[in-house]
Specification:
The chain has one domain: Alpha-Beta Plaits, CATH 3.30.70.100. It has three helices and four strands. Strands 2-3-1-4 form a four-stranded antiparallel beta sheet. A hairpin with a 6-residue loop joins strand 2 and strand 3. It starts with a strand and ends with a strand. With 95 residues, it is of the alpha+beta class.
């Protein structure tokens, strides 16, 4: 099992738009065969901060996720240009 934690800092004024795009995107990610969890969180105190928590069966499933048409269209095409910063961390299950 591989977990990905992504932290987004959205450009000012784009917060609601990015949140809506992620809300619409999430069911497509969850439907991928190797995705076991895809959850979008938003900081209530700072709406520009968004955290994604994703789990995949293995590294190959995570890589396949990044190659899907919906990832390329929505994440790379529409969301990344609206971010001030994006940080990603990958973790493996212990045990």
């Amino acid at each position: 099992m591989v977990a990905l934690v992504a932290r987004y800092l959205v450009l000012a004024g784009m917060e609601d738009e990015v949140a809506a795009e992620l809300r619409d995107f999430a069911p497509f990610a969850r439907a991928e065969p190797g995705c076991s969890q895809y959850v979008v969180h938003r900081d209530p105190a700072e709406p520009r901060r968004i955290l994604l928590y994703e789990q995949y069966l293995d590294q190959g499933a995570l890589e396949a996720h990044r190659e899907t048409p919906h990832f390329k269209s929505v994440i790379e095409g529409r969301i990344l240009p609206k971010l001030e910063r994006r940080e990603r961390e990958i973790y493996n299950v212990v045990g």
